[in-house]
Amino acid sequence: MATNRDVMAMLAELAKLTQLQEENPQSFKVRAYENAVHGLEGETRDISSLSVTELTKIKGVGKSTAAKIRELIDRGSVAKLEALRTEYPPSFVELTKIPGLGPKTLKRIRSELGVENLDDLKVAIANEALRDLPGLGATSEEKIGKAIERLGLHGKDRRTPIAEAMPVAERLVAEIRELDGVTNAEFGGSLRRHAETIGDIDITVAATAAEPVMRFVAAHSAANEVIAAGTTKTSILTRQGLQVDVRVVAPEEFGAATLYFTGSKAHNIALRQRAIDRGWLLNEYGLFDAETDDLVVRETEAEIYAALDMDVVAPPLREATGEVEAAAERSLPKLVALADIKGDLHYHTDRSGDGRSSLPEMVDAAAAHGYDYLAITDHGEDLAINGSSREEMLAHRAAIDAIQADYPDMRLLFGCELNISPAGDLDYDAAFRSAFEFTVASVHSHFDMSSEDQTVRILTAMADPSVNAIGHLTGRYIGRRPGIELDVDAVLEGLATTGVALEINGALDRLDAAADVLRRAVAKGVYMSISTDSHHTSELKRMEYGVLQSQRGWVPGDLVVNTWPCDRFMEWVMARR
Ligand code: DGT
Ligand code: CA
Ligand code: CA
Ligand code: ZN
User: Fold this and answer.
1) What is the widest separation between alpha-carbon atoms in the chain?
2) Strand order across the beta sheet in which 223-229 lies
3) Tens digit of each residue's pLDDT (9 = 90 or more) over 549-570
4) Atom number in ligand 1 closest to CA 200
5) Residue 243 C-alpha to ligand 3 middle, in angstroms?
6) Ligand 1 contact via 286 beta carbon (within 6 Å)
7) Looking at CB atoms within 10 Å, which of 16, 235, 244, 391 has the fewest?
């Protein structure tokens, strides 16, 4: 039976493939599918029981979309989608990830050069065949070639952005946990370490019987191909070409197995050496005495670390970059936990053109998280489509003031996401900006300026007394768009001097600033904020990803301003004004 998630995945795929067919991302049909996905995000009912008429009452769902939803629920597949999949197989769709290759260009290189997949495209580039097509040219050809290299789309080590892998893994783990005889399930590997890109997904399952789990995985709707079906390990390939390894272990082996399959390999090797030094052996089954083979411990990761005379190392740190030594010396930083977060500081409502939930809905969702404070930061006037005029902002402030009375336990801040112009200027004027109680300033355009100019741009912006944080520092989209180039040390110096916070953006396709930048920021004592950049109530859970990103950067909690109690936080905010 199709779940709400299946339906949303079906519509998202229809939107994607229809873009290719209509050669236009803005086509009416594409928008209709996308709007339906957004409408369903907020749906808490099981929609499989709804009629076409009932379905059309959901925001964004039209009649033809409703019919496709029923078709999926009733027949298990959608004819229109099947036809599109035949016309556009995954190896062709993959080419849409390459910047500079829009649907029109793709169609042309397919019909005129016979390019069906990445290998074909690379041959065409090597033969300099692209440059002769209308609308392309030598420069575009070179750019496309470079983008292929940069995206790592080629060969055996092609990697998937974490934003694409995470939903697949979270879904499988949630479903496997519900199976009979399963006592625990967890994803491991690079995904649990919260790496930016993922080679394959590793899932470890603790169960009293392996067979039902193996059967479930091999028959899963996400599996386009089963590449290995063993008694305790099954590997599948999704339509997007992402491999998932599912391993079943006995419940008492779960700790040793998750430790092993979380890695990294280098971290494991360091742990194994500590075991050897103590006369033991460490493997995926447990920690054993080297001479007698007697079991020392194995049930939980915590027990194994304790036996090795170490503090528990959080998964994002397990990269053999000093964490083993620090855990042994008991000098790991006191990292942020989700429960430490007291507020969200980058937060949109439908006052922003790209916001999709109303102010009351967004405030209510934050209150449900138990936050003590919340900065509402809709876009300023500079973002033509998404931004707000002065009049609109003032009306917005009145609406926020009015709603505040209903939430006595949560301090609402009238805020703004200011856009940083190429010169480092910000929206409105200084007097108008000073009315905001909190702002995050970020780059949304002009990604190609020189590193020198970008550095001046950010330093200029942060010098403005209305700015409290710099949002998504580089503007990157992992695997899709490289960030702006910057003199990172100069920017971090600026942040340390001004006391402006560096945002850790929890959107999985951003995870900006990157972990290595965070680690350098820690060394300079830069304040940081962990934010979701939510545009819809379904996006508040990004806070968890932001927290994991902060851990990957070894960020101690006391540098993170939104772990502070409201009084201390407000003192810091006011110090800028
Ligand atoms: P990926 O998939 O390339 O993003 O990176 P990982 O770290 O998920 O690597 P993967 O999937 O090959 O293996 C998952 C974990 O299993 C890895 O992090 C550590 C463990 N592992 C795999 N092979 C070995 C090995 O030969 N030695 C040790 N010590 N551990 C291994
Ligand atoms: Ca892996
Ligand atoms: Ca693997
Ligand atoms: Zn934003």
Assistant:
1) 78
2) 182-187, 201-207, 243-249, 233-238, 223-229
3) 999 999 999 999 999 999 999 9
4) 2
5) 8
6) no
7) 391
